């Protein structure tokens, strides 16, 4: 299994496997039928408070990552992460986000977590 992340605005590919949007808010300018999603998993997204604090500022990413990993320990989010693991069993999984800087996004943190590269729980 491969877990990857990319922008929801990019054209879908057969190699994507299961496509899951991991943003809390629906992306601007894209119709649901054009997103080619298998699922929209809002429960795995960072809290509104954390997302607003972060503001997609790369200098805040290490602290955002730490706080987000803490949030992923909460029961509802933990179930959502477990669901992503189940989806990735036996197939590729692509986590989608609307952010322009995918490398500094919650999707990148989730890829790390699901791939077992996260140093925290």
From TrEMBL:
Pfam families: DUF488-N3i. It comes from the Bacteria. This is MarR family transcriptional regulator. It comes from Streptomyces caatingaensis.
């Amino acid at each position: 299994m491969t877990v990857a992340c990319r922008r929801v605005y990019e054209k879908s590919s057969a190699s994507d496997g299961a496509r899951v949007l991991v943003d809390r808010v629906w992306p601007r300018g894209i119709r649901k039928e054009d997103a080619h999603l298998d699922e929209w998993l809002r429960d795995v997204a960072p809290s509104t408070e954390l997302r607003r604090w972060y503001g997609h500022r790369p200098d805040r990413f290490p602290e955002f990552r730490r706080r987000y990993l803490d949030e992923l320990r909460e029961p509802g989010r933990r179930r959502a992460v477990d669901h992503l693991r189940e989806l990735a069993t036996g197939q590729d999984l692509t986590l989608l986000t609307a952010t322009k800087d995918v490398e500094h996004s919650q999707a990148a943190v989730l890829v790390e977590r699901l791939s077992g590269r996260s140093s925290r729980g």
